[in-house]
């Protein structure tokens, strides 16, 4: 990669990211000991990040059930991550279809798809290793995802990618540094955080360019699609069925989580970086902004 002519900033960014991909890429099938026993009594995520932490439902759970709930919440987030990665890979491949295959920019798009292939295998292995079900999106979100992956281009494509990547990243950066939680989760988080940092850089860089190139009508439409993507991604983080794993009726769990000030603060914390970034670009405004608020990602 050294010595590649980089006449355009876009190419310079992609050249750097390709070099970084050669230096630090992981194959989770090889790097992770999937059969290692889990640590008894260890949480799967910091308990204060559970959607029910601090509620009366949480108080009513035994320590063992609380640990079990965090396990299913992690499985739910991994299922959502995997779902979104599948959407993202198809959007990047569509982007690549129209790109110059000799450009570093296009080659990095393929490199990112390769990363996401490994990530989705990693999340699938993780769900299996935890002994949890795959928490699939409900039929409506599944359909919206199908539509997004088939049609999204430009600002809405890159903004949707960033929302999913940066929200998950906030949780994983915290998890990888927390020595009290299950080592398997710390390892999965570390691999994902390292590789996602490149994806975030690529998407942020491209998004700025796409916003500049878009017209006012395209941007108005993008704001609504972006708001809906933020809403769907947030609502899918904890699948209602995860509560049933500890005997809590899904509807009761969802209602308690939505009213839970700890969980609301956690959601805003996870989205702070990306909400600020997209606001600066003028992408969190108009009717789309209401969806960000309804998702609990921004305050009033
Ligand atoms: Fe990923
Ligand atoms: Fe990614």
Task: State the gist of this model.
The protein has 13 helices and no strands.
Would you mind describing this structure in some detail?
The protein is mainly α. Helices cover 72% and strands 0% of the residues. It contains 13 helices and no strands. It has helices at residues 9-23, 28-31, 56-59, 63-97, 104-130, 139-151, 154-177, 183-213, 216-237, 241-244, 250-259, 261-280, 287-294. The radius of gyration is 19 Å and the shape is globular. Residues 85, 116, 119, 192, 196 line the site of one fe (ii) ion.
Oligomer: single chain
List low-pLDDT spans: 1-7
**Residue share in helix:** over 70%
Number of helices: 13
The beta-strand count equals 0
Which small-molecule species are bound to the chains here? fe (ii) ion
The rounded Rg comes to 19 Å
**Overall residue-averaged pLDDT value:** 92
- What percentage of the residues does DSSP assign to strands (E)? under 5%
- Which structural class fits the helix and strand makeup? mainly alpha
The secondary-structure element order is: HHHHHHHHHHHHH
Q: End-to-end span in angstroms?
A: 47 Å
Can you tell me the overall shape?
globular
Could you outline the blueprint of secondary structure elements for this entry?
Elements: H1 9-23, H2 28-31, H3 56-59, H4 63-97, H5 104-130, H6 139-151, H7 154-177, H8 183-213, H9 216-237, H10 241-244, H11 250-259, H12 261-280, H13 287-294
Helix pairs in contact: 1-5, 1-8, 4-5, 4-6, 4-7, 5-8, 7-8, 7-9, 7-12, 9-13
The structure holds fe (ii) ion (2 copies).
């Amino acid at each position: 990669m050294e010595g590649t002519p980089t006449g355009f900033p876009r190419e310079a960014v992609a050249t750097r990211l390709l070099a970084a991909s050669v230096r630090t890429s992981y194959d989770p099938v090889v790097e992770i000991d999937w059969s290692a026993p889990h640590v008894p009594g260890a949480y799967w995520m910091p308990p204060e990040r559970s959607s029910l932490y601090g509620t009366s439902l949480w108080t009513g759970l035994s320590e063992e059930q609380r640990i079990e709930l965090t396990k299913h919440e992690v499985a739910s987030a991994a299922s959502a991550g995997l779902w979104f990665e599948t959407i993202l890979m198809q959007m990047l491949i569509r982007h690549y279809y129209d790109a110059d295959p000799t450009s570093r920019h296009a080659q990095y798009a393929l490199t990112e798809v390769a990363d996401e292939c490994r990530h989705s295998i990693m999340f699938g292995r993780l769900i299996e290793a935890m002994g949890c079900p795959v928490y699939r999106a409900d039929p409506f979100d599944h359909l919206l995802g199908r539509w997004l992956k088939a049609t999204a281009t430009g600002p809405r494509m890159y903004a949707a990618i960033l929302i999913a990547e940066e929200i998950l990243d906030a949780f994983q950066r915290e998890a990888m540094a927390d020595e009290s939680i299950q080592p398997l989760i710390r390892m999965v988080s570390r691999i994902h955080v390292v590789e996602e940092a490149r994806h975030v850089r690529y998407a942020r860089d491209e998004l700025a360019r796409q916003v500049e190139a878009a017209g006012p009508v395209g941007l108005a439409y993008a704001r609504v699609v972006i708001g809906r993507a933020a809403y769907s991604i947030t609502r899918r983080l904890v699948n209602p069925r995860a509560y049933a794993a500890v005997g809590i009726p899904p509807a009761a769990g969802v209602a308690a989580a939505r009213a839970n000030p700890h969980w609301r603060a956690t959601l805003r914390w996870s989205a702070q970086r990306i909400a600020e970034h997209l606001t600066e670009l003028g992408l969190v405004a108009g009717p789309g902004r209401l969806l960000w608020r309804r998702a609990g990602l921004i305050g009033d």
